[in-house]
Write a structure and sequence with these properties.
single chain, alpha/beta, Urease, subunit C, domain 1, 2 domains, 15 helices, 16 strands, 24% strand, binds 2H-imidazol-4-ylacetic acid, binds zinc ion
Amino acid sequence: MNADLIIYNIGQLVTGKELPIIASESPMENIEILKNGYIVICGSEIMAVGSGDVPSKLIKFTTKLIDAEGCVVTPGMIDSHTHLVHGGSRENEFVEKISGVSYLEILEKGGGILSTVKATQDSTEAELIARAKKSLKIMISYGVTTVESKSGYGLDSETELKQLRVNEILNHEQEVEIISTFMGAHALPEEYKDNRDEFIQSVIDLLPIIKERNLAEFFDVFCEEGVFSTEESRKMFLEAQKYGFKLRIHADEIKNTKGAELAAELEMYSADHLMAISEEGIKSLKNSNVIANLLPGTSFSLGKEYAPARKMIDAGIQVALSTDYNPGSCPTENLQLIMQIAALKLKMTPKEIFKAVTINAAKSLGREKRIGSLEEGKKADFVMFDAKNIEYILYHFGTNHTNKVFKNGCLVYKR
Ligand code: IZC
Ligand code: ZN
């Protein structure tokens, strides 16, 4: 095996490899950071990672060498919760929202998610693709190389399938890897107001069709007061599990409905949001392998409480961070901004934050053997930053610190 590419003179190489947890430290600070590091790449994979001088036997006549000039390199970042594929936008609700009308009040009036549903139903597949590609380009520019993307703006079989097909097409037509989630239970369409069970059954009926066409790997429900109850959610999750879907949940976002407890009970991959998690919920997650996927951009945008990240991390729960990119509660593709909010508002440390968007996000998507850290045999997805240390990236907020982004060993973004 010959090295195709070597990045050397890396000031801080955040490999993301998990080290044994030291009792006196946060259980999320256990990621490896090498000083004066290098990465050796062969094809789309990592051949070697180390610090000090690159062993000369690795450097062949044809090897391309890149000097990182003492800057930070991290694994490609993973945005593990987005509503990427949608039509329209919701700036028409913005002034109302900042004047204090709540997210659920807007939804009850047929706005919010339901207005995006209408715009998504009215969009062609080509329009949705073009729109999502624009967002993905922005995401790459911030250092994101893998994105989870949910349906849920169809709520009818035709549009749900259209959104999921768009996920599939995006995987062939641009560089970011898309991981597809079916979220048919995102809101209750108005015509089902007096017939909730019928709608829930229609979601269940779609499961085998989506499975057969291999259009989604995960199943998600908006389990929330006024949306889908914990019992309704459990019923759909159990059906999805039967068909082999992996589970993730919108849990305890606005009101506590024991969503975290349900995630632990059904051994889900992630429980997302958790702004209103209870002590009991924290206990359940602590005794499970569920990743707590926090989305502080949503608290920022809705003017809501932040999830009690410190309490969860100190209890031993592993946390991921994502944008929640969507046209309503968090209209931003910028994962670096979310990481900066996590530092300033969730009081997470730089090491915890980089763990949250790399190896923990990979775990929340069941991809930790392939991506999320820079280790021999894993995919060569990495970000070269224009910063000498990870603290600087979080401290200097509101700006993009990315210099170059590589996906599968190929340069996909250059400042
Ligand atoms: O469109 O408002 N929370 N779903 C649950 C969302 C936010 C997306 C939206
Ligand atoms: Zn969401």
